[in-house]
Amino acid sequence: MSSKGFYRPGFTVEELIDEVGGVSKLERDYVLDELKTDIHTNYREREEEVGEEAMRELERQVILNVLDRKMARTPCMRWIILRKVSGCGRWLSATRSSSTSPRATTCSRP
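and the corresponding structure tokens:
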């Protein structure tokens, strides 16, 4: 696996066709299974290279980036998502102030 860039399959189309005995025998499910297996293998190898903690941090950053771009357009929503992902147990109070917006509680991380 390349240390830079995006995922590149560890096999070629020609190799898949040869494995099944011709393009007419190549089925969608077979290709998907081969891709999934290869992706999981690459992911595990990358995790071994960078370490489990670094990989979890990367996952959190990717999730936050996607959420920020797709749905977290308001400051309140961004705060709620950040508190939830950061592992804060008491991230949003069930009580409401006189307005209809929820109140944040103090986060006491262990």
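(Above: one complete record from the training split.) The mean pLDDT is 76.
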